[in-house]
Design goal:
This protein is mostly beta strands. The protein is about 0% helix and about 50% strand. It has no helices and 11 strands. Strands 1, 2, 4, 6, 7, 8, 10 and 11 form an 8-stranded antiparallel beta sheet that branches. Strands 3-9-5 form a 3-stranded antiparallel beta sheet, with no helix packed on it.
């Protein structure tokens, strides 16, 4: 029997741009390519770096995480810029928090950076994905730069040895 343990870390790069558009109501949208398949009862840590553009610096966006129903552990932090040199953060222990996007705008029209990092243990098997929300209905736009955004995740629990 061995007591050696190791962590395998995986990184995925978003494959295509994702438009966060809100034509009829404000709701979270999956960010294309920033996801992985989680197994029930396993504990994962994750960190996503999301690069995004908005139509105007007055347009705000938030990023969160979602996955299989009723995770047994979920704790995350989402950080984003609201003006040049200014940063804000949200904290969540349920999917798609906060329920509405921040309304203080974005630092730049292009190349904004948001990070979402935390820990999750799904109750059932399923896809865990980074999600985004736009603050306005109709006029604002936000595009996640797929090729510039990255998600790193790893399993951090250990199976019981016989």
């Amino acid at each position: 029997m061995t007591t050696n343990k190791f962590i395998v870390e995986r990184t995925v790069v978003g494959d295509t741009n994702t438009a966060l558009t809100q034509s009829s109501g404000i709701a979270y949208v999956d960010v294309t390519g920033l996801n992985w398949y989680g197994k029930a009862g396993e504990v994962y840590k994750f960190k996503a770096s999301v690069v995004y553009d908005v139509n105007a610096t007055g347009t705000g966006a938030n990023f969160s995480v979602s996955g299989p129903a009723s995770p047994t552990v979920l704790s995350y932090k989402s950080e984003f810029s609201t003006a040049a040199g200014t940063q804000a953060a949200n904290y969540g222990n349920a999917y798609d928090l906060p329920a509405a996007a921040q309304t203080t705008g974005s630092a730049f029209a292009t190349d904004n950076l948001a990070t979402v990092e935390g820990v999750i243990s799904p109750l059932t098997d399923g896809v865990i994905t980074v999600r985004g929300i736009l603050e306005t209905v109709g006029s604002g736009t936000c595009t996640v730069q797929g090729a510039s955004s990255v998600l790193t995740w790893s399993r951090i629990d250990w199976p019981t040895e016989a």
